[in-house]
Known about the structure:
Layout: E1 7-11, H1 16-27, E2 31-36, E3 54-58, H2 64-71, E4 76-79, H3 92-109, E5 114-118, H4 130-145, E6 150-154, E7 157-158, H5 165-174, E8 177-181, E9 186-187, E10 190-191, H6 192-204, E11 212-215, E12 221-222, H7 223-233, E13 240-244, H8 246-257, H9 268-273, H10 298-301, H11 315-323
Parallel strand pairs: 1-2, 1-4, 2-3, 4-5, 5-6, 6-11, 7-10, 8-13
Antiparallel strand pairs: 9-12
InterPro entries: ComplexI_NDUFA9_subunit, Epimerase_deHydtase, NAD(P)-bd_dom_sf
Protein name: NADH dehydrogenase
Domain NAD-dependent epimerase/dehydratase: 8-216
Amino acid sequence: MSYRNEVVTVFGGSGFIGRHLIRRLAKSGAIVRVVSRHPNQANFLKTAGSVGQIVPMAADVTDDQSVARAIQGSDTVINLIGALYETAPWSFQTVHVDAPTRIARIAAANGVRKLVHVSAIGADTRSASAYARSKAAGEQAVLQAFPGATIIRPSIVFGPEDAFFNKFASMAQIAPALPLIGGSTKFQPVYVGDLADAITAAVHQDSAAGKTFELGGPRVYTFKELMELMLHEIRRKHRLLVPVPFNIAEKLGAFCEKIPLIAPPLTRDQVELLKTDNVASPSTPGFKELGMTELASCEVILPTYLSRFIVGGRNATLTRDVGKFNKYPSAR
């Protein structure tokens, strides 16, 4: 299917995943509506396409009429809206259930041909985590309103703007030690560029309609291994990783939740998530079923953006690193 003259509406398109997805949609010739609460935050994406191709739009996902205005005339709708923690009035119920339900219902009523809803690995109505339960409830509501919707469940997503490796690398610059909560918990990090390609492929493929895909990268790591890899890349290998028991972490999360005016660095619900592996199920369709077999690994991508956390930058370490392998010193 050609995207030429197609109208694709992306809710939450100015965020981390959205900025990579928008560029790919624009290359295929689609007219892309980037919907968010603050459309000015999407203005930087206009350069990803030709004049008038990328259209930032404001919408209130709690209001039917506002969502309908954004969707009207769309061929495809993609929902990327999500939250890692709750803040008034944006509860998990509002963000992960009510908003996707509204988008799916209005998309169906407007004759939208394709709907892609991005959820998360670990979505489970039986989970002890409110985040995971709300993600599962959102999936069910979307499919009920729009049975042909495609559900995308990625593992932890990494890339230049991520809130995972960047956060811990920033902490490692000043802290002599990093807390290690659930060090043996397994993750299958997926590069944001691969995820954006997969979402685009899901829109292209009619066979993806009504299916759920779990997307994990090429390798499974423990949380401890991810921290060790990050520290290696920013030349902080001697930072200590201090194991923190879950019961202590829960108390710490409860304290962090009460700190006003800042995003909590840890919540009790996030601690609950760390008790369960975040790995794609081999019995669920994944990248392969979307036609993707070559995936980027953390080892390849992390050096491209974590170098800013190296004292003096990556160039400051090149001489040292190269010198170790230089058998033939320059002639004097």
